[in-house]
Design a protein that fits this description.
The protein has three helices and no strands. The protein has helices at residues 3-31, 35-64, 73-106. Helix 2 (35-64) runs antiparallel to helix 3.
Length: 107
Amino acid sequence: MDEKQQLMVMQLIMAGGNVKGSAFEAIKAAKVGDFKTSDTKLKEADKFLADAHNAQTGMLTDEAQGHHQPVSLLMVHGQDHVMNAITFRDLAGEVVDLYRKISQESN
């Protein structure tokens, strides 16, 4: 794996971690009724997902142009981070919605 490929994989790992961090902050904010912060954090998580998507697209474009990349444990780890981040972001959105519904029903 060359330096460019390592950089792309590290972007996947960092973006995935950032997605999960922002999504978790959204849940914590919703838990205390701060839905403005929750919404902001979910949008932030979506931005980080877009960053991950852009890194993946770059890798796929290189592959399609004949620049084959060896599959390494590091690459698999990076892709795993992104998949987990997508799942966590989706779940966080549902949890925030539940907290919002509970808050509205109690008022």
